[in-house]
């Protein structure tokens, strides 16, 4: 029998995605570079193996597919994707399509889409979020590529995606790299969200001297309110989990050096290229980078061991909850602004509300807040700012006071909260009608005759620097 879709790469994500496809009633042909992996996969698939067609060669994979053929690639991002594309394309016919479901750099997706288009093949960049569980039981899916080819596989994608009140958390965002770009920004926001939760954990651990299980219980409590989200939930569970070997809290036996595969960094790089500055996301990327300098931090701790601090009163649990909520909304504000800037630059016509909607279930940043965010975007964001939206301005007003106390407390106690501090600085900047860039403009004009605009609209665009007074 002919399979509706093929899949290359039976790592955990690829294997789970295949099972998800089969479970939803679609015959799927699978291929893995090591054939033994394919055999083991089919052997472990139980009843679902009836809808799984194992292929030992690319030729066999292609031969088992109904036309137009569609093959999902789920291999490590980068060169491995190009290698699979090179193996598949000579076997394909015009109208066939390749779908990259990995965490690709959207520039690669644009390049690949253009190259395949030359061969009259379609290329779809598909961001998939939700980790292993999501892939198996319903991820959030962000599609980029030509809409006609997406129409061919849409029934499969919507069937395997997570559902929010029955609606699939899958959407087509635009051509070529649009889906992978939305996924990249999702991951940037994921980094900020994780970092902010970790900052609260740090304040409670090092400021209040609370034990992990107590902090976990607080997070579990927060997960019943407006902060209800997958990341708050799992953080609570993690903090309540003991290490089976030592009986200590598991976080106490984990080395405090964070890994990163690149998507958070890409978000920042692309944002900067677009003239944006997602400072909360950058803070999260920076915190991970700094965390990896363990030996340096140990030396720093010894060197400045004698530095005393005079901490303010620690914020209450309620204030920390409000601060986390406000900072999180600010991170999303910055994330949506990147999407909006990219949409303009690449002419994608991205539907930001649709991004918020597909993130409501299945993905790592799923949270109760996203419902309101989607609604706020549909209502129209004043100045493109989520934090100005009537639905959020009240929360932000309340939360800003708590955020300010939290950042002040952290500074006074000598505890780093880079994401919170950046969120607050951004908020305070966006509510300051007269900033300090008048001086920056004067400095630029002084040393480079760069010129400035006058508030009275006057024509003289340069300062009288020749006669400037030198202060000694
Ligand atoms: C998801 C995750 C997933 C993965 C990333 C982030 O949406 O399911 O974002 O894609 O966890 O690779 O990984 P790093 O933290 O290693 O950058």
UniProtKB/TrEMBL annotation:
It holds the Pfam family NAD_binding_2. Its EC number is 1.1.1.44. Keywords: Gluconate utilization, NADP, Oxidoreductase, Pentose shunt. Residues 179-466 form the 6-phosphogluconate dehydrogenase C-terminal domain. Pathway: Carbohydrate degradation; pentose phosphate pathway; D-ribulose 5-phosphate from D-glucose 6-phosphate (oxidative stage): step 3/3. The active site is at 183 (proton acceptor), 190 (proton donor). GO terms for molecular function: NADP binding; phosphogluconate dehydrogenase (decarboxylating) activity. It catalyses: 6-phospho-D-gluconate + NADP(+) = D-ribulose 5-phosphate + CO2 + NADPH. Substrate binds at residues 103, 129-131, 186-187, 191, 261, 288, 444, 450. SMART domains: 6PGD. PROSITE patterns: 6PGD. The keyword NADP applies. GO terms for biological process: D-gluconate metabolic process; pentose-phosphate shunt. InterPro entries: 6-PGluconate_DH-like_C_sf, 6PGD_dom2, 6PGDH_C, 6PGDH_Gnd/GntZ, 6PGDH_NADP-bd, 6PGdom_BS, NAD(P)-bd_dom_sf, Pgluconate_DH. The keyword NADP applies. Belongs to the 6-phosphogluconate dehydrogenase family. Homodimer. Catalyzes the oxidative decarboxylation of 6-phosphogluconate to ribulose 5-phosphate and CO(2), with concomitant reduction of NADP to NADPH. PANTHER family: 6-PHOSPHOGLUCONATE DEHYDROGENASE. This is 6-phosphogluconate dehydrogenase, decarboxylating. The lineage of its organism: Bacteria, Pseudomonadati, Pseudomonadota, Alphaproteobacteria, Rhodobacterales.
């Amino acid at each position: 029998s002919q399979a509706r879709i093929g899949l290359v790469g039976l790592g955990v994500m690829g294997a789970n995605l295949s099972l998800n496809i089969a479970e939803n009633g679609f015959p799927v042909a699978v291929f893995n570079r090591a054939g033994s992996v394919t055999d083991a996969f089919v052997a472990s698939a139980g009843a679902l193996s009836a809808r799984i067609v194992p292929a030992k060669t690319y030729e066999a994979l292609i031969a088992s597919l109904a036309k137009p053929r569609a093959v999902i690639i789920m291999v490590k991002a980068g060169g491995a994707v190009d290698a699979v594309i090179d193996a598949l394309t000579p076997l394909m016919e015009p109208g066939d399509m390749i779908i990259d479901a990995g965490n690709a750099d959207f520039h690669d997706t644009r390049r690949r889409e253009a190259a395949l288009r030359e061969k009259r093949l379609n290329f779809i960049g598909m961001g998939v979020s939700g980790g292993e569980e999501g892939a198996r039981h319903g991820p959030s899916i962000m599609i980029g590529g030509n809409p006609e080819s997406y129409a061919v596989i849409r029934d499969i994608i919507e069937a395997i995606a997570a559902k929010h009140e029955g609606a699939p958390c899958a959407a087509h965002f635009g051509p070529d790299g649009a889906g992978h770009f939305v996924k990249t920004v999702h991951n940037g926001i994921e980094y900020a969200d994780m970092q902010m939760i970790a900052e609260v954990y740090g304040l409670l651990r090092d400021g209040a001297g609370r034990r992990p299980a107590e902090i976990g219980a607080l997070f579990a409590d927060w997960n019943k309110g407006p902060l209800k989200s997958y990341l708050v939930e799992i953080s609570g569970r993690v903090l309540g989990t003991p290490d089976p070997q030592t009986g200590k809290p598991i976080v106490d036996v984990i080395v405090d050096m964070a890994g990163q595969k690149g998507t958070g960094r890409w978000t920042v790089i692309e944002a900067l290229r677009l003239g944006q500055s997602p400072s909360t996301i950058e803070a999260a990327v920076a915190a991970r980078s700094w965390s990896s300098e363990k030996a340096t931090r140990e030396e720093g701790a010894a060197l400045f061991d004698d530095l005393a601090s005079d901490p303010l009163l620690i914020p209450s649990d309620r204030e920390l909850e409000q601060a986390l909520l406000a900072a999180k909304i600010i991170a999303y504000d910055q994330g949506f602004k990147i999407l909006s800037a990219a949409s303009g630059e690449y002419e994608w016509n991205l539907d930001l509300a649709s991004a918020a909607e597909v993130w409501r279930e299945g993905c790592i940043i799923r949270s109760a807040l996203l419902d309101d965010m989607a609604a706020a975007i549909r209502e129209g964001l004043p100045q493109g700012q989520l934090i100005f939206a009537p639905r959020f301005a009240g929360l932000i007003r309340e939360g800003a006071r708590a955020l300010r106390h939290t950042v002040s407390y952290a500074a006074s106690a000598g505890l780093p909260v880079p994401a919170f501090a950046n969120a607050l600085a951004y908020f305070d900047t966006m509510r300051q009608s007269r900033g300090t860039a008048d001086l920056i403009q004067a400095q630029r004009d002084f040393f480079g005759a760069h010129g400035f605009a006058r508030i009275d609209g006057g024509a003289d665009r340069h300062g009288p620097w020749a006669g400037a007074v030198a202060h000694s």
